Amino acid sequence: MNNGSQIIKIAAHTFDAAFDFVTMENNIGILKLAKSAKANVIKLAQQQPQTGASGVIYSWSTNGILNRVDVELISTSDCASGDYGWSEDEVMKTMVCGVVKNSNTCVGRFGSPVVSDNKLVGLTSWGGCGTNGQAAVFTDVPSLRSWIKSSL
Questions:
Q1: What is the DSSP string of 8-29?
Q2: How far apart are CA 10 and CA 14, in angstroms?
Q3: d(Cα 25, Cα 5) in Å, to the nearest integer?
Q4: Is the pLDDT assigned to residue 148 strictly greater than 60?
Q5: Residue range 103-129, pLDDT digits in tens
Q6: pTM (2 decimals)?
Q7: What dihedral angle (degrees, nearest 10) is formed by the CA atoms of 143, 93, 140, 34?
Q8: Which of 25, 34, 36, 103 is at a distance of 20 to 30 A from 91, taking alpha carbons?
Q9: For the chain, what is the radius of gyration of the CA atoms?
Q10: Sequence-ordered list of residues with C-beta below 8 angstroms from that of 20, at least 6 positions apart, any chain
Q11: Shortest CA distance to 32 belongs to which of 12, 61, 2?
């Protein structure tokens, strides 16, 4: 079965030097591929989605199947309010959150893309499954957009 997957070597990689291993702030990295991939491109979001926006997390399973998890996105300020299990000293300005819409699923593996309105808004980072009222925490791509652009 051909699921469209490609194996491409990594030519280079980098991560944000401001990444904090304790707080997980600035949790982002970039991989440069050795050759172009045959794939559709998802643009980077320019602004953080508002609380209530719909999102989708995509993640490859170990058996090569692309999983899709629907989430309700939660802004940084709302996520840090305590209403979703996190406080303002845990959720930083480079983070956004989400709660899964189907409690039988879990957010994807760390680094999995979070897409809303056909734009990349986040990457799974920490905080668990995003179920039972406790939000999963994602890297907020729009807040790190300038670092991404300068690192390409």
A1: --EEEEEE-TT--TTT-TT--E
A2: 11
A3: 31
A4: yes
A5: 767 776 788 999 999 999 999 999 878
A6: 0.88
A7: 60
A8: 103
A9: 15
A10: 26
A11: 12
